[in-house]
Amino acid sequence: MNVLIIGANGQIGRQLTELLHNSKEHQVTAMVRKKEQAEHLKQSGINTVISDLEESVESLTEAAGGSDAIIFTAGSGGTTGYDKTLLIDLDGAAKTIEAAEKAGIERFIMISALQSHVRENWNEAIKPYYAAKHYADKILEASSLNYTIIRPGRLLNDPGTGQISAAADLERNSIPREDVAKTALVALNEKNTYRKAFDLVSGNVPIADALKEL
C-alpha cells in the first residue's frame, strides 16, 4: 500500500514515516512544507512531496496522487495561536479529506485527541483545539472514505511498550507517541478498525490484539 503521511515532520509523523519506510508491506511518501525538510528525508531514501495544508484542495489532491491511503498526523502545535489551530487541525484536515475523495483514495486514518467526541470532557485550557478535532472527525465520519479515527491520550516521548487499551470511551491517561504510530500502522490493514473511532491509551494488551477486539 502506498501511504501518504500528512504532518510527516511532526513527532508522531516522523515515527510513522520511519516505520512505513522500514516496512516490507507498504511504501511511504512524506508530505512536508519546506524544501530543507524534504532534502533531509530524501537523504534517508524516503520519498517526499512538498505541500501545505493552508494551500488549496487542488494542490493537496495533486500531492496525494498515486497514494492508496492517507494518515493525517498534522497539528498546529502548542506554540501557535488558535488561528493556526483552526487553519491546520480543522480546515487543513477538511481539505485533506476532500482531496482524498477527489484523488480516489479510500483509506484514511486520522490522529485526533482523547475524548474529542464528548464536549463535556474537553480540557478547558485548550477547548478550541478540541473543537477543531471534534469537527474534523465529524467531517471524516460523514465522508465516503474508509476511515479510522484514533484518539490518543496525553502524548509522551517515552519508548513504546507495544501494549495499549483501545475502546470507544476511555478515561484520561497517557501513551507514548511511538505506540500511537505503531497503532496507526497496524490499523492500516486491520478491517476491524474500518469506519470506527476509538480512544487510545497505554494498557496491557498487544496492539494487534487490542484492535481486533474493538
Automatic annotation (TrEMBL):
<protein>
    <submittedName>
        <fullName>Uncharacterized protein YbjT (DUF2867 family)</fullName>
    </submittedName>
</protein>
<feature type="domain" description="NAD(P)-binding">
    <location>
        <begin position="7"/>
        <end position="190"/>
    </location>
</feature>
<dbReference type="Pfam" id="PF13460">
    <property type="entry name" value="NAD_binding_10"/>
</dbReference>
<dbReference type="InterPro" id="IPR036291">
    <property type="entry name" value="NAD(P)-bd_dom_sf"/>
</dbReference>
<dbReference type="InterPro" id="IPR016040">
    <property type="entry name" value="NAD(P)-bd_dom"/>
</dbReference>
